[in-house]
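Morning!

This is the sequence you dropped in the shared folder:
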Amino acid sequence: MEAVIETGGKQYRVTPGMRLEVERIPATKKEGKITFDRVLLFVSDNGRVVTDPKKLSEIKVKARLISERKGKKILVFKKKAKTDYKKSYGHRQIRSLVEIEEIVAKKVA
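The structure's back. Tokens below.
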């Protein structure tokens, strides 16, 4: 089974047992168990593809939060010509590492 989920404004192709680094999970879901409700595509074991929004709303992807860590540093540099203005700073986005436990799809495919 495979599914395409959306979280943090990005889309990810997931399978059970896969580890995935996503945008930070909101504080309310840090008990260790996460459910991704926004499923965009589902492929069953027999190869049948489901894209119907009504059927996709019944599919859930269950995951477990493993850890949180900072991502790669992004450097930002600003400069204005002829005024000797320069400014440089960095940013590190916090990312969550999750492990996909199962894809729950009852009577869909």
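Headline: The helical segments are 53-56.

More detail when I'm at my desk.
O.
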